[in-house]
Amino acid sequence: MSVHEKKTETKLIHSTEEGNLDSNTRAIHVPVYFSTTFHQKSIDHFGPYTFQREDFDQLGPYDDSKSTNPARQSLEEQIADLEGGERGFAFVSGMAAISSAFMLLSAGDHILISENIYRGTYLLITNVLEKFRIDYTSVDMTNLDETAKAIQPNTKVIYIETPSNPCLHITDLEGVIKIAKSNGCLSLVDNTFMTPLYQTPIKLGADVVLHRDARLLSGHQDIKAGLAVTKNQELGRDLAYIQSAYGSILGAQDSWHLTQGIKTLAVRLDRSSDSAQKIADFLHKHPFVEDVFYPGLSFHPGNPIHQRQTKGSGTMLSFRLSNKRMTEAFVESIQLPIFAPSHGAVESILSYPATMSHATMPKIERERRGITDSLLRLSVGLEHVTDLIQDIDQALQVAAKKTNVGVIHTP
């Protein structure tokens, strides 16, 4: 008789067979061990830094917190289970996770990246990896033909971000992953905006899944972390070696807090996504809004693909006003959302990509990607959607009046 596989909503709370019970006390939460080192039983149990890479998995369970810690191990097992992978890793930041994943490459290798990726990833690839003779090509990854033609003999990784930041471009995961496999490339997928509740790239064939931050997973602006999950044990062993060598591990306290935050992801994400859909519909009909970008809108480019490969549209949307002056007036008039370069919290957060998330990208490159001076990004939180819509509407009315666009009262 087949064993029933638990739904993701249940796994968020009971991510292992033992429900993360403490093996010593049966406490319902794994305790936080602040010790940086652990007593070894014999001379055969000692730190991983004396081992070769192929011997890395032959260690005892705990030796030095740089290698592993009970709280971090619990989190890493949790995210691996949720993403459907074999090994999970918790890093001190999202860029630490992404940088470590790229250390799977060697000098002379080539990376294929989407034109629309997170600013930190863009800087890493364009300004850092090139120093190690790792080259890259940027393509419109929503176009499978263009993606396939950009493959070079030394291409080793295809890096995918879908939906992308901040214009929510959608990439066909199955299509690009098939291209990667047929050319012997690893496929790395940034799954930050969707989380494993809505999208599981490994089940579509991806080799590594990354979370460039854990704000949406935790639900609060109190944890800085990055996560990675590998499809198989071989990749996991290599990445574990890199994680230990760099020492960019997530601390015990943050690991414990993130594990607790993940348990409420389903109710938070569903509520915020439902509100985001209503706000996107409202903005689309508003006379003062020029463009709205949200995967849940039927006319959004890539909507059919997104609906096929995900279970939800997410909490993030962006929209464009008529000009920079009106955008500035709107930001000055909005009351509820926090104005900051962040996302994923219980509070709604409004950000201005041109001077926040993509400030270091050359203006010509920003505008080519649709990141104009009148673009705003909204991460929808848990406030009542009626309050958010009324606040957005009044800010649009005030901004229009200040910039002489006129005042139109919407229903």
Strand share of the residues?
A: 5-15%
- SSE string, helices as H and strands as E: HHEHEHEHEHEHEHEHHHEHEHEEHEH
Give the helix level as a range of percent: 25-40%
- If helices are DSSP runs of H or I spanning 4 or more residues, what is the number of helices? 15
CATH architecture level-2 label of the largest domain:
3-Layer(aba) Sandwich
Total DSSP E strands: 12
Specify the CATH class of the largest domain: Alpha Beta
Walk me through what this model shows.
This protein is α/β, with parallel strands linked by helices. Helices cover 36% and strands 13% of the residues. The chain has two domains: 8-262, Aspartate Aminotransferase, domain 2 (3-Layer(aba) Sandwich), CATH 3.40.640.10; 266-402, Aspartate Aminotransferase, domain 1 (Alpha-Beta Complex). It has helices at 8-11, 70-83, 94-102, 119-128, 144-149, 173-182, 195-198, 215-218, 233-246, 252-262, 265-285, 303-309, 324-333, 363-368, 385-402; strands at 87-91, 110-114, 135-139, 155-161, 186-190, 208-211, 226-230, 291-293, 316-320, 338-339, 349-351, 375-379. A seven-stranded mixed sheet has the order 1-7-6-5-4-2-3, sandwiched between helices. Helix 6 links the parallel strand 4 (155-161) and strand 5. Helix 2 (70-83) packs parallel to helix 10 (252-262) and helix 13 (324-333) packs across helix 15. It is globular. Mean pLDDT is 90; it is low at 48-52.
